[in-house]
Design brief:
The protein is an alpha+beta fold. The chain is built from 13 helices and nine strands. Strands 8-7-6-5-9 form a five-stranded antiparallel beta sheet. It is globular and about 65 Å long. The two termini are about 20 Å apart.
Length: about 375
């Protein structure tokens, strides 16, 4: 399967991954054949890309870090939590704790898996789905740092509620497609302080978890907000969540831009590593994320085009690929697979865009 922008979706393509709303309900199920009605509906919902079956190469199923059932339940819990905080100033802490426990257990059971696929988000549900993805990535990093159960729970609660302060921000401002004014940006920035204030009302929530909400936009060089903290003055959990937060934001479709592919997002973040976040946290993220997820089309240093068919956690940057086109754009016959950990003379230059893939497929 591969993620394709709606601009390049043709009626008749098969959906490879179910699309959920923030209530945990399936809006469009895996295996559905996409038609014009579904395409129009996806546009209305603000969904800019979907996962489809390629048809060119049969790929093995991608292991799920978190089951669809648990992910749907987490989304539903988070949406009801935000709603209760906004309307009644009430946080169901037990429900949040149980939700984080579910995620920790899933990730510990699957700690040899990589983060391959980013969940698709509607404009209206972005904050909830982003919070879940940020929590999953943060917990994966915590597991890699060999955190014990208590530290994982503190990290998880901070991560899943890192944007809880947005309940005090005007929704229209949060989903504004255009550029923010200086005053609007200041209002958005206040979500960090609001989040900290909300979480500090509950004695059961660790101060360390609350500081994730306050500090996840601080920068390693001191250029962040709200307090311009620098280096190791930033709380450890907040450093982790900051990295996860940026990665999920970059790989998500937004009203003002298309999602970056994993390799593009990691490339952008690599340039930010000395200023925005701690280097060891970034390296931890890289070790847990598939730079080229299964189904990614890639350009090789030979000029050939290949599709990623397997990614292993011990070598997330060097997947197993299947050659599909030669350097002249001609379809290759047969099924030749290459393990890039064993054949070092072949390297991936970059992933291909939807436009480049569509051009190649038009010649088949």
């Amino acid at each position: 399967m591969r993620r394709v922008n709606l601009e390049f979706i043709e009626p008749g393509m098969k959906l490879a991954k179910s699309i959920y709303n923030s209530d945990g309900r399936v809006m469009l199920g895996k295996g559905v054949i996409i038609n014009k009605y579904y395409l129009n509906r996806l546009v209305e919902l603000g969904i800019q890309s979907v996962y489809v079956e390629d048809g060119l190469v049969e790929l093995p199923p991608v292991p799920e870090l978190v089951s669809e059932e648990i992910r749907a339940r987490v989304l539903e819990t988070l949406k009801s939590t935000f709603k209760a905080v906004k309307k009644e100033n009430r946080l169901n802490l037990r429900l949040i704790q149980d939700t984080v426990d579910d995620l920790i257990n899933e990730l510990l059971d699957h700690k040899h898996f990589l983060y391959n696929l980013t969940d698709l988000k509607t404009h209206d549900d972005y904050t909830f789905q982003h919070s879940v993805n940020t929590c999953i990535l943060s917990l994966m990093m915590g597991i890699s740092f060999q955190y014990n159960q208590l530290k994982l729970k503190q990290l998880g609660i901070g991560a899943i509620l890192h944007d809880i302060g947005k309940t005090r921000i005007d929704k229209d401002l949060l989903i504004k497609p255009g550029e923010l004014t200086s005053e609007e940006y200041k209002q958005i920035q206040r979500h960090t302080t609001y989040g900290y204030e909300i979480l500090r009302e509950y004695e059961e929530i660790s101060l360390l978890s609350a500081h994730v909400a306050l500090q996840h936009h601080e920068r390693w060089d001191g250029g962040g907000y709200p307090r311009n903290l620098k280096g190791d003055k930033i709380q450890e959990y907040a450093l982790i969540v900051a990295v996860a937060d940026i990665f999920d934001a970059l790989t998500s479709d937004r009203p003002y831009r298309k999602a970056f592919r994993n390799d593009q997002a990691l490339g952008i973040m690599r340039t930010m590593a000395k200023t925005h976040f701690e280097a060891k946290c970034f390296l931890n993220l890289v070790a847990n994320v598939a730079t080229y997820p299964v189904g990614t089309w890639v350009l090789l240093n030979t000029g050939n085009v290949a599709i990623v068919v397997e990614v292993r956690k011990e070598n997330p940057v060097y997947p197993v690929i299947r050659l599909v086109f030669d350097k002249y754009g001609q379809r290759l016959k047969g099924l030749r697979e290459v393990d890039l950990t064993k054949l070092t003379s072949i390297r991936i230059i970059r992933s291909l865009s939807d436009k480049e893939i569509a051009k190649l497929l038009s010649s088949v």
